[in-house]
Amino acid sequence: AQKITQTQPGMFVQEKEAVTLDCTYDTSDQSYGLFWYKQPSSGEMIFLIYQGSYDEQNATEGRYSLNFQKARKSANLVISASQLGDSAMYFCAMRDDNNAGNMLTFGGGTRLMVKP
Amino acid sequence: NAGVTQTPKFRILKIGQSMTLQCTQDMNHNYMYWYRQDPGMGLKLIYYSVGAGITDKGEVPNGYNVSRSTTEDFPLRLELAAPSQTSVYFCASRTAGYSPLHFGNGTRLTVT
Predict the structure, then answer these.
(1) For A56-89, how does the pLDDT look when each residue is reduced to its tens digit (9 = 90+)?
(2) Where are the beta strands (DSSP E) in chain B?
């Protein structure tokens, strides 16, 4: 069974600084995908970034980058130049490629608070 | 483009009552999912569907049922509601391949 662990329940970051949110995963599969979602206080789930297990380069999307270390089974999210609007819950998720539904398993989340 | 639409947004049920959470998507996605999110927690998969007429259980299916008669609709049925089913319910869909999930805005359900 796949497992996703986010060890930081809450984090503070100063506005305009960079922050890293940790995510480790456990799987015996060779093919899988890793996602990060943002959930603001309004409750919706917003897709941020994706990394495939066979992708050789770390994914980047604007201020978001994914630090993918396959041997360590980690997929940390890096947010550069934090903004007040980045304050939210962040969830790491892994896709199961061995199942017909390719469902996502989510971590417990990290609450990020950006200080002005 | 509406995306994934869930109704209702909020609902309060008494113990033992039943209800159906509606989910519809207009993106012609074959894959659809129901997740629940308990307070302060991540999302757990209840049921999923890979196409019309095909459904399967996820991690926490007990107390729920689903159907998928069309590509667009994926309703979730709660029978005999219990306080443990108090949660926020998210419906999501995606295309084939390695595409991300598109989520609805959620239904906040309280069972008292």
Answers:
(1) 899 999 999 999 999 999 999 999 999 999 999 9
(2) 4-7, 10-13, 19-25, 31-37, 43-51, 54-57, 64-66, 76-78, 87-94, 102-103, 107-111
Q: Which of B31, B35, B90 sits opposite A101 (nearest CB)?
A: B31
B50 reaches A (C-beta below 8 A): yes
CB-CB: which of A43, A91, A95 is closest to B105?
A43
DSSP SS3 for A74: strand
DSSP 3-state percent helix, strand, coil across chain A (nearest 5):
5, 55, 45
How far apart CA B52 and CA B30 sit, in angstroms, is 7
Q: What are B10-20's pLDDT values in tens digits?
A: 999 999 999 99
Report in angstroms the alpha-carbon separations of B71 from A41, A102, B5, B41, B60.
31, 17, 14, 30, 23
How does pLDDT run across B39-70, given as a tens digit for each residue? 888 999 999 999 999 999 999 999 999 999 99
Quote the mean pLDDT of chain B: 95
Q: Yes or no: say if B49 and B75 are a contact pair by the CB < 8 Å rule.
A: no
Q: Does B42 sit within 8 Å of A43, measured CB to CB?
A: no
The structure tokens 């456990």 sit at: A26
Residue A6's contacts (CB-CB under 8 Å, 6 or more residues apart) are: A21, A22, A23, A90, A91, A92, A107, A108, A109, A110, B42
